[in-house]
Request: fold
Amino acid sequence: MAKNYVVDKKKDNSAKKDSFFKRTGKFFKDIKSELKMVTWPTKEQTIKLTGAVIAFVIIFGAITGGFDYVISSIIKLVL
Reply:
C-alpha cells in the first residue's frame, strides 16, 4: 500500500543563499580542483586510441554499407 508523505512547500528563509558571484567563483574553484585529479593520457596512448577509433569507424562503415547494398539490391529485385 502506498504511503502518503506530506511535503512542506514553504522554504526556510533563515538560510540565505550566497550571492551569484560567490557561487560562480566556487563553481570555477571546484572545476579547477577536479581537473587536477584527472589522469591525462600520454601522447602515445592518445595516438593509439585515436587510431583504434578511426579503424572501428571505417570497419563499421564498411559493414553498414555492405548491408545497405545487399538490402537495397533485394528490394530492387522484389519491386
Observations:
- The CA atoms of residues 3 and 60 lie 51 Å apart.
- The mean pLDDT is 88.
- The helical segments are 20-36, 43-78.
- Residues 43-78 form the longest helix (36 residues).
